[in-house]
Amino acid sequence: MSDPRLIAAFDLLFTTARLQGLAWTIIDFLCVFFVLRIVDQIRLRFRKRRARGRWILASLSLLGLPAIARVENRKGFFEIEAVCVTLQFVALLLCTFDIPCFLELLDRLEKLRSDGDSSPEQVAQTRN
Hints:
Low-confidence stretches: none
Structural class: mainly alpha
Order of helices and strands: HHHHHH
Number of domains: 1
Largest sheet: none
Number of helices: 6
Shape: elongated
Strand content: under 5%
Helix content: over 70%
Distance between the termini: 67 Å
């Protein structure tokens, strides 16, 4: 690859990929953040403590952002991206353990709705 135009095109493509990788990592984190917030609210309704391990995994994924911005080769870029995405998806996967709580909350809300009283006060009293 000695043609200067090919080198310039490759550099532009790689820079674009890095910017896209940064953007997607941040967007993925925001999605995970909102899912974890929802799960924490459900867990609080059932008097369970927050799932801190999931938050730690999601937060660790943000540590890769500076590395993504500075990485100089494709292999390193994809390795760092893979680690970031893996941490985020493991945090989401761990949320599946709270599906029974979520389903129970939905059952309670459905029962309240079918009983004809789904006022905010009544819904707030769905705690154990």
